[in-house]
Amino acid sequence: MSKHPVTLGNFLKDSTGLHVVIELKDESAVEGTLSSCEVLHKLLRCRMHNCTLWILLFITVGIICDEQHSIAIEEAVESSFAGLTFGTNSYFSKFMRKRSASEPIRKNRCELKLVADYEFFRAIGNNNYANAARYLINMIERVNSIYTQIDWGIDVNGYRLVNLGFSIKEIKIYDRPSTSPRHFNALASTQDSFSPMELLKSFSAEEGTNSTCLTFLVSAKVFDHGILGLANIGQAGERGICATKPIENVFSNTAIMSVRRKSELMITRVVDLVAAHELGHAWGTLHDDPNDSECNPPNSQDGQNGRYMMHESVNSGYDKNNYFFSPCSIRSIHKALYEIADKCFVEEQAALCGNGILEDGEECDFGGQLAAEKTSDRCCTNKCTLKHNAVCSPRHSECCAENCNFSPSHTLCQPTSPDTCKKSSYCTGNSSKCPEPKPIKDGIECADEGKCLTGECVSMCQILSKDLSPCICENLEESCQRCCRSAKTSLCQPVKPVRYLPEGSICIQGQCHSNVCEKKLTDEASLLSKFFNSFKDTPHHKVFADYFVFIIVFTSLLVWCPCAAYIVYRDQKQHLEVVTTSEEDIEIVEKIFPRRL
């Protein structure tokens, strides 16, 4: 059978009795004997009207009717379709074998331009480029471990969307602040907190590019209202990933996040979840609907697996579902990836000279491959080899000085980190590598009010009992108290005596403020909230001028929608009567295909 889709109407001229299976959005299917595209349309409209289903927008195998419906037929069919019939069970088993045998897509990496601002360089990198770069690289590797495990479905060409993740095409780290207070790289001291919307605009204008799938800023600034990130929602190449066409000369394949909440840096597991969350928006999903029990499951007091990654408020990383996308998010992202993944993603590579990452076969890599003008590096050639007389590169080695030689002994290369229970580490003077730091003294406090023990941070819950683990109490009044979950009962309860979480800690609906859990969103992903917030403090005459077209369209919709609803209802009623008369030719086959988890 031809691999190219053709119009069903051409085949059905002078033919009757074509037996087809149409796969629907809920992964059930409609089976019946059809005589024309008109009957197909009526059948599907009836099915959609009764079950509120969407039709999948991809071809499984076979032919397309008006580019709207996916129809599967046997491969043995050649030119005559009249009288074609086949058994339901044998057909579906064959169809499912084809799906399971689908080849994985080869272009499986979304290339990133990864940017860090000066505040990140100072706070996370400790003014050391290699430290900052290593943090970013490790973060993306951990995020990849989340994304690459997911089966997103089938793309437009029939390839299975599996093992999809990110590759870093370029790393850019600002080692000095920008002078303009409106620049995304401005000093944090210029104001208490920054508008994430303004930062995203500045970042998109300054660093946006169509040379990568996505451009991602990691900052250490405090964002307004406890927001931790902001992303352009992926919309089939128009925004988010693969949006290669600028809007008003600004690229919208951009996202930003901060590693700082309030005045404190976040621990690694929360940073990873925020990064995965924002990248999920860029891939095409909104927040999970709080009223959808499938994608926003009930509370975890009884030992459930907790909230999914795209919950509207930040997750703690205590629960299993925190590291997984909900079924709703997977369906949304599949819709975005369906056509664009093959056009925008690239094949995974073992090494790429010019991306700023030291990889196998390279002596150094100073990056800059996306720069408008080719730059040179003091220590490294553009072929990723060390220059003459250079023994190392400060881009990759914590103990390499700017003169491309080893840093003097006793140079601090890794500061003390109570959260990781490690002491400070100092260069030896005869190596470019920072020595492995020694464990901090046992009993020193670390994350989650835990204590250091032999170089590891043991949580407060584990100190109380080995069968306890940290959790967030779902009772709003207890949500800002220190809570532990019992492995025996699966119950999450406050510790006694009561201990309150630090200011700004994650609670069930946002962040703790004065021991009260306040609703805070992880980001500003709500398109409507962004739109309506733009009205605030705007003169009425300017609002009318700026949104004149919107006002006219909105007013028209108030009149048009009821009329359209009536017409659709009448049309559906007529189609229902047509289909009912030939009910014996139609069988609804429920849940043929298992849901993807």
UniProtKB/TrEMBL annotation:
Record's GO cellular component terms: plasma membrane
Binding positions (Zn(2+)): H277, H281, H287
Keyword NADP: no
Catalytic residues, chain numbering: E278
InterPro entries in alphabetical order: ADAM17_MPD, ADAM_Metalloproteinase, Disintegrin_dom, Disintegrin_dom_sf, MetalloPept_cat_dom_sf, Peptidase_M12B
Gene3D superfamilies tied to this protein: 4.10.70.30, Collagenase (Catalytic Domain) (3.40.390.10), Disintegrin domain (4.10.70.10)
Keywords: Disulfide bond, Membrane, Metal-binding, Transmembrane, Transmembrane helix, Zinc
Membrane-spanning intervals of the chain: 547-569
GO BP of this protein: membrane protein ectodomain proteolysis; Notch signaling pathway
Domain Disintegrin positions: 350-442
Protein's name according to its UniProt entry: Metallo-peptidase family m12 domain-containing protein
Organism taxonomic ancestry: Eukaryota, Metazoa, Ecdysozoa, Nematoda, Chromadorea
